[in-house]
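Quick start: what a row looks like.
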Amino acid sequence: MSERKPITAGRNLPAAFAVGVLLGALVLVTLFTVKATFLAYIGAVVALALWELSRALLTRGIVVPLVPAAAGTAAAVALAYWEGAGPALAALALSVIVVMAWRLRSGADGYLRDLSATTLVLAYLPLMAVFVALMLARTGGARQALTFVVVTICSDIGGFSAGVLFGRHPMARVISPKKTWEGLAGSAAACLLAGALLVSLLLHGHWWQGVLLGAAVVAAAVLGDLAESMIKRDLQIKDMGSLLPGHGGVMDRLDSLLPCAAVAYLVLSAVAPV
């Protein structure tokens, strides 16, 4: 019996690298100049993801009212940074109420379906993004946000590299055939190492606290990646969009970052409290 071939990359690597460098440079520039510009960056990215996800859902006849959803997204993220968690949560709750009223004019057919999907979208995108804004608003928030972003990206890089080089055993063949156990090991190793280094060097914490952060992030990142893959399988699409050459859509890059935001916020609350 012949040896099974490694699972290959299946993407335009030069384009993916160039886009990754550009996105990373924007993170650094906005974080360490005027923090509010990073907030605007996050808001723009989440808005694009909202548009992509609404288009993807529309292929199955699910309508997300973009106007109230986008307005609620912008309000929640901005309020989280300037006013705190309470006003941000109120903005999201109000968004659901507005969506309930907005959708009334289209009649009863599909009302529950559209309302349920829109509520999920609001929880999936702006609710997760709120934790980035809350993190950013802290003393030393720029360093905390950078730590969260880098550790999460290391999950993707470690998993991709190990999967391409050593991937032999699919982890979840039905959900995402290219995900392997070797890739998961690479993600874990990269996250644990990055967490230990960044928490100790950038946040002046203990290395073992960084290991805890890395472990929490890799768990959330893998779950987020698999969940988005399941959504795409249900919608019968390959990518959420094509705005980012070599990556797919914006949602295809946020699938791990967004779930990790809440996890990183909680861990960093203990590791680097205000």
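That is the whole record. Residues 1-8 have pLDDT under 50 and may be disordered. The first strand starts at residue 170 and ends at 172.
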